[in-house]
Every structure is written in C-alpha cells, then in structure tokens.
Amino acid sequence: MHNFSAGPAQLPLPVLEQASA
User: Fold this and answer.
1) Residue 3 confidence class, pLDDT cut points 50, 70, 90
2) End-to-end CA distance of the chain
3) pTM for this structure?
4) How far is CA 11 from CA 1, 21, in A?
5) DSSP string covering 1-21, please?
6) Contact 1, 20 (CB under 8 A)
7) How crowded is residue 9: how many other Cβ atoms within 10 Å of its Cβ?
8) CA-angle at 12, arms to 20 and 5, nearest 5°
9) pLDDT tens, 7-20?
10) Backbone angles phi, psi at 16, to 5 degrees
C-alpha cells in the first residue's frame, strides 16, 4: 500500500507504514 505517497502528504508516513505492516 504505497498509494498514500500521491495522496494526503500531511499524514505521518511512518504511522501508515506501521499500520500496513
């Protein structure tokens, strides 16, 4: 799930990475 890079960049990426991990 690396679609967030083109979406809301205001969200913490590390958190999303851990959430999908």
Assistant:
1) low
2) 10
3) 0.15
4) 14, 17
5) ---GGGS-TTS-HHHHHHHH-
6) yes
7) 8
8) 70
9) 666 666 777 676 66
10) -65, -35
